[in-house]
Amino acid sequence: xxxxQELPEQLANRIAAGEVVxxxxxxxxxxxxxxxxxxxxxxxxxLVEAGIRLIKVRDNGHGxxxxxxxxxxxxxxxxxxxxxxxxxxxxxxxxxGEALASIASVSHVTLKSRRAEEVGFExxxxxxxxxxxxxxxxxxGTEITVSQLFYNTPARLKYLKTSATELxxxxxxxxxIALSHPEVRLAAYHEDKxxxxxxxxxxxxxxxxxxxGRQVASQIVTASSKTNxxxxxxxxxxxEVTRSNKQYVTxxxxxxxxxxxxLTQSILEGYHTLLPxxxxxxxxxxxxxxxxxxxxxxxxxxxEVRLSKEKELCQLIQDTVQLTLREQRLIPTVxxxx
Length: 338
Ligand code: ADP
Ligand code: MG
Description:
The chain has about 350 residues and is α+β, with helices and mostly antiparallel strands. The chain has ten helices and 15 strands. Belongs to the DNA mismatch repair MutL/HexB family.
């Protein structure tokens, strides 16, 4: 006699969803990252009621095989890693194979997709249960629509903040992805209002212009440095323009926007006395390194990572930022009139 039993798949997914799908912004993040992993060069996001009523993400990536599509909604089902060795060389944004299963378990999902040389299809799921599949005419790529988010998890729905706060979180998420992937043309709309539009030409400075505006963009200085382990590019806004919180410091590691206290602190140290007390810079730091040196499998949202040589990287960042800003100080931004 035993009393322990395995939970039904749908229930297990809904429990797991609590970790991956905290709020509408989490859904936007996972769907847009999937589009990037699918090789999309153009991604469009549409939102209604801060994503609670509807989130639609359309991409021109490689699309789904119709046979594969139901499997994509199973937990721990992924095309991105195959075995344990792959876990140490992750180059894609996703690899845990749980986002679609989690999202679908707490919403209604429509997936439309077509691969080159295949016919398109449309598939609908309610609470993760497949309800219909039919042929659909469309271009190569994928369109995923998530509606009625958290319809079956009332506590989660209640916990959501105001629309304005949820929308701000979505915008922040989109901005970070845009900064991490300037080669992707990203456009996002909330009920006909444009939230973001990048041109996808690969120039990170132009993404900063799209997000922060002309005044900030005109104050960017760039720096780069390289060691055996790291290659680093910094886009530093001159300390004449500051903000009241650290949110405007963006860290990008191997194409993934991450949170890391020590790395952020090294940027701040680099600016050091150039910043007034209580003010923070606007800066984007891109670091590329061997994926062996990062462990991204720390948290389901993948925003936290562990670095093998964090101290070394911190020093490199601080030195690069400091040197660059110091050099800049010697060059006046406006030539004095004779
Ligand atoms: P993961 O991204 O960790 O692999 P997901 O649950 O996010 O897990 O997605 C499951 C699988 O569905 C992916 O591995 C990928 O093969 C496929 N997929 C998801 N989104 C897209 C997309 N926009 N275009 C093509 N394939 C996709
Ligand atoms: Mg994914």
